Amino acid sequence: METDFLKISDLKKSFGTGEARQEVLRGMDFTVRKGEFCVLLGPSGSGKSTLLNIIGGIDTPDSGYISINGDKLEDMDEKQLTIYRRKHLGYVFQMYNLIPNLNVKENIEVGAYLSDKPLDVEEVLTTLGLQDHKYKYPNQLSGGQQQRVSIGRAVVKNPDILMCDEPTGALDYKTSKEILALIEDCNARYGTTVIMVTHNEAIKNMADHVVKLRDGVVRHNDINHNKIPASELDW
Amino acid sequence: MRNPLVKRIPKELASDWHKYLVIVIFMVLMIGVISGMYVGHDSMIAAINRGREELKIEDGSFELSERASEELLEAISSGEKADVRQYFIDKGISEADKEVAKAVEDELQKQVRTTIEDAVREQCAAYGITDEQMIQEQIDSAMEAQYDNALKEARNSEEFKEAVEDAYEEAHNAVIEEVDEKWNDIEDQYGLNDGDFHPVQITIYEDFYHNASEDNDNDGIEDATVRIFRKDSEINGASFIDGRAPESESEIAIDRMHADNVGVKIGDTITVDGRKFEIVGLLSYVHYLTLHENNTDLMFDAFGFDVAMLTGEAFDDLPSRLHYNYSYMYDVKPADKIEKADCADNLLKSLITQTLVYDNEIDDFLPEYLRQASNFAPTDLESDSAGTSIMCYILIAVIAFIFAITISNTIEKEASVIGTLRASGYSREELTVHYMSMPLIVTIAGAVIGNILGYTAFRKMAIYLYYNSYSMPECGIEWSPVALVKTTIIPLLLMFFINLFIIARKLQLSPLKFLRHDLAKNRRSKARRIPAWSFLRRFRIRILFQNMPNYAVLIFGVIFIELMLCFAFGLPDSLNHYGDRAADMVFADYQYMLMRYKDEDGNIIETSEPTAERFSSTSLLYPKTRSSVIDGMGSGGDESVTVYGIADDSTYVDIPGDLASGNVYVSSAFVSKFGLKNGDVITLHEEYENKSYEFTVAGITDYDGGIAVFMNNGSFAEVFDKKADGFSGYFSRNEITDIDAQDIAVVITTKDITKITNQLMHSMGGFMDIFKYTMVVLAAALIYLLAKIIIERNEHSISMVKILGFKNSEIGSLYITPTAVIVTVFSVISFVVGYFLMIWIFQAVMMQMDGYFAFYMTPVSMVLSVVYLLIGYAFVSVIDFIRIKKIPMDVALKNVE
Ligand SMILES: Nc1ncnc2c1ncn2[C@@H]1O[C@H](COP(=O)(O)OP(=O)(O)O)[C@@H](O)[C@H]1O
Ligand SMILES: [Mg+2]
Asked: How far apart are CA A41 and CA A214, in angstroms?
């Protein structure tokens, strides 16, 4: 494991004003190392997505900063942020958000287009077990299959960081484990740093690094020394 | 690597092909028709201009009441003003001299006689002769013997010579004094002393013509007036659309348009002035592109008026009066309209003075730039295309908004995808380009196909339409850069910027907002309070509020369509209305305008027709101060007003007999066009003289046939300094048969009015029908597109309510009823807006021409123009309902967001 790759420092964020004001992040500090599988764990509404969005440069903190390889996000303008996301990030959401009138392969190509160093689309399709479905359209796929495509779209970019926001939130137990295994596989195979948001306690066992959030602060920041493969998770 | 989003575009096209097809057809029709109009128009204009060059169109013409002498023509050619003062002095002096000479001679003879007689009487008295008879005998014999000598002696006496000289001098002085006085008036009257007069040299050509009667079905009844020119005329040539020029005395070539209208063709025989001629050619005279008989005619009349060409022999043989019409060309061509006006002004001064001193008279003077018959068509073409291109832009804007709305709906629908793409690093620009490409592709496709059709089918259509109205020469294809700019470049730019604006604005939102579906600028609509109505009703109202922007475009579209429908229904209605009220457009069943009121022998022209009533008339001009457009047609900017002097107790025109001098009644058309009211003071001025008159409007006469002013005959004579027994013509209930045709200038009957409307209906009727149905289709298409958007936008919720168990009919009523209510309410409101807009547009157009023609719609048309739109909508509703039925329930379940 390499040294500090992503540094989150005293991050604060609140929504609303006056009575309705809600402090979601109240000063968060932690670091993520390169190639690490990091899980952000916390109950619903604890600010996990907000944190992930700030790391992803699509939301901004009120104070504090994020630096990646020493570059501070707050110094970047809109254009640079877009380039940052384009070069370094892959996104997977709970909702698959596929383009309805593009088929599986094309949806993955949409991700590949953005990258200077994309993976081979066919290879990704094989890895994700989508070879048989590559000419199908999203509405012809099951939820799990759609999520695979969504992961494929993020992974094909060969990103430095794969950001996953509750990727298994809408899926059943079995499918969830398959998806987690895929993410794990990417992490191992391509050395992609993974930051995954989840409220599922069981998932922490597959991570290198577990950050537990509660009431807007980091409650636990642990390195997991005996991680187990996704396929052996149980909940 | 190519942006994979590009792959969506053909798929989008394929899946929604009917929507895009409707839009493309829409654009192709609009762009095609408009570029066809332009190309046709440019080709026509090119052909007209070529014709003007090749067929040598005049720079103007004047008609004299008698054939001009060589000297007069020479004098006019020089462009110099005649010395009218010297002319009057010479004329006065020669008359005075005659009188003086005669008076002196008479006096001398009388004196000599008296001297001789006195001498004889004295002698007789000396001889004591008292018998008067003897004295008389003596006187007679003395006269015989001495008179001649005595006269000679007396004549030679110094005394006499002195007396004579005095008499002449006195007489001459009187003449000069009188002329000087009169001269000032004349100078004033003709503006002859304008400092900036300069002679305009011209070359004069004889372009004599006959106005003959034409009987084109040889039934002995006159069908039209035909103006006949000689084949060998050196000016104002004709181009042959078909056939050839006459070669023998029994052959004639006539106007193509007229032949078309009255249904005669090459090989047919027509009767002209009682003689039979075979038609051997169909032509278009360069100075009669439209068949305007008189320059003041409101409309050309290709039914009742014709122009034709005969061989010189046949021409000379015609019995009808010969019109001494002379055409001229400026030796130095004036560059623009201002110079043309200036040249015409100066030339007119020369013409007035020269004809005066050569004892001739001007019957007519018309510079070509004011000539309706040669300028009406090109000007009309111009205004046609201006109107249609404005229509085109409005329509393109409507389509652009439809696109923009479709796209912003799509963007809303795809919000999560967009959010994800943006989060993954797609830039705003890339997405903007992506969402822009569809409308641009469709516009370009429409523009390309439209242009191709514009240069082919639609150009032919446009030319066909022009051929239906005008006597045009044949024309080829002309490349039209204006058409390209107006039909292609401007719509593309319009499409581009409207879409860019809306899409760029939408995509301005942050990726997070897209991911959260937080797109509305203000969320107030959610909070809108709705009364405690039934659930369905509240639901409906919500749908209405949610789709506000769509409905806004729908309403805009409906207003546009209603305006067009008002036009399509209103124009034929207005024409028919005009025709139906033909009786109101004339004063009497017959109105005879005379050449003069005394015949050649100086007798007043009378008629035995008991209903005949004399009237006087003259033509003045009324300035169109209300209009900023001063280079209209007709009288060159000012409105031509006919001033009538009406007999006391007239049976034809209802004005009070005791109308004070200076007070006038005005025609209702005058009132409508210029918004006059009782008590207004109007100032009319002479066309060729610097003289103006002020009248007070004392009342309104119900007459829509023209812009006219009425006063009593007495006032008329007084105001215009006419003889008390003078008049201009007769109104009559029956035809007048006992006036020599040579003395009649024009007869106006109700039939003439009907002819005008027939002409217009013929030219435009077919076009209007096509236009009407096109508008209905357009309306349906527009509503189809907008209704589709509304349903698409609500696809998700429709699917959801289906799952909840709503029946298709209930859902239909939920989503179709609000649109139906909006369309119905706004088609009525839009009709009212369109109707008044049309009245306003008509008024504005009328300001640019002479005469008046009111916009009118029958109640049936009013209802129909709304009903047509609703019928179009009814079809769309059916399609909508089918569309709703087809939305599968899993839309709400699959691909959830
Ligand atoms: N744009 C926003 N405006 C207002 N409140 C927000 C916004 N985004 C998130 N929140 C609030 O912040 C809190 C944390 O949200 P989120 O980060 O989505 O939680 P998690 O992903 O842990 O469930 C929630 O209470 C949510 O209501
Ligand atoms: Mg969350």
From this structure: 9
Q: Cβ of A138 and B515 within 8 Å?
A: no
pLDDT of residue B165 exceeding 70, the answer is: yes
- The answer to whether residues B93 and B69 belong to one domain is no
Distance CA B290, CA B302 (A): 8
Around ligand 1, the residues with Cβ closer than 6 Å are: A 15-16, 24, 42, 44-50
Distance in Å, alpha carbon of B241 to nearest chain A alpha carbon: 59
> At which of B341, B375, B409 does a domain end?
B375
- Cα distance between residue B635 and residue B638, in whole Å: 6
What percentage of chain B reaches a pLDDT higher than 90?
A: 18
- Domains identified in chain A and CATH numbers: 34-58+84-232 (3.40.50.300)
B32 and B107 share one domain: no
For residue B289, what are its two tokens? Answer: 């592109």
Asked if B89 and B179 count as a contact pair (C-beta separation under 8 A), the reply is yes
Cα A50–Cα A91–Cα A126 angle in degrees, nearest 5:
155
> Is the pLDDT confidence value at B191 over 70?
no
Q: By C-alpha distance, which of B4, B785, B793 is closest to B410?
A: B793
ipTM attached to this prediction = 0.88
Query: Which one of B7, B418, B424, B890 makes the best mutation probe of the A interface by having the most chain A beta carbons within 10 Å?
Result: B424
CB contact under 8 A, B426 and A97: no
Same domain, yes or no: B68 and B41: no
Q: Taking CB atoms and an 8 Å cutoff, what residues of chain A touch B888?
A: none
- Same domain (yes/no): B616, B718: yes
Range(s) of the domain holding residue B256: 60-79+201-375
User: What average pLDDT does range B358-376 have in this prediction?
Assistant: 86
Asked if B72 and B208 sit in the same domain, the reply is: yes
Together in a domain, B653 and B793: no
Q: How many CB atoms lie within 10 A of CB B242?
A: 15
Residues B404 and B266 in one domain: no
Question: Atom 18, ligand 1: which residue's CA is nearest?
Answer: A49
Residue B247 covered by a domain: yes
> H-type helices in B157-217, by residue range?
158-190
A 10 A CB-CB count for B180 gives 12
Residue B299 CA to residue B580 CA, distance in Å, equals 17
What would the two tokens of residue B265 be?
């063709």
Q: Could you identify the atom of ligand 1 that is nearest to the CA of residue A166?
A: 21
Instruction: Examine the domain organization and report whether B465 and B612 are in the same domain.
Output: no
* Residue B596 within a domain: no
Residue-wise pLDDT tens digits, B496-528: 888 898 888 889 888 888 888 877 654 444 555
* Ligand 1 pocket mutation pick from A13, A24, A195 by most atoms within 8 angstroms of CB: A24
Q: How many domains does chain B have?
A: 5
**Which of B190, B210, B235 is where one domain is finished?**
B190
B49-63, B208-222, B280-294, B545-559: least confident range: B545-559
Give the distance from residue B410's alpha carbon to the nearest chain A alpha carbon, in angstroms: 12
* Mean pLDDT, range B379-386, rounded to an integer: 66
DSSP B604: B
Q: How far is the CA of A43 from the centre of ligand 2 (A)?
A: 9
Tokens of B464: 């066909």
Distance of CA B196 from the midpoint of ligand 2 (Å) = 90
Q: Which residues surround ligand 2, an ion (CB under 5 A)?
A: A 49
Q: Which of A142-146, B175-179, B780-784 has the lowest mean pLDDT?
A: B780-784
* Atom 7 of ligand 1, nearest CA residue: A15
Q: Indicate which of A15, A50, A110 best probes the interface with B, i.e. most B CBs within 10 Å of its own CB.
A: A110
pLDDT at site B277: 95
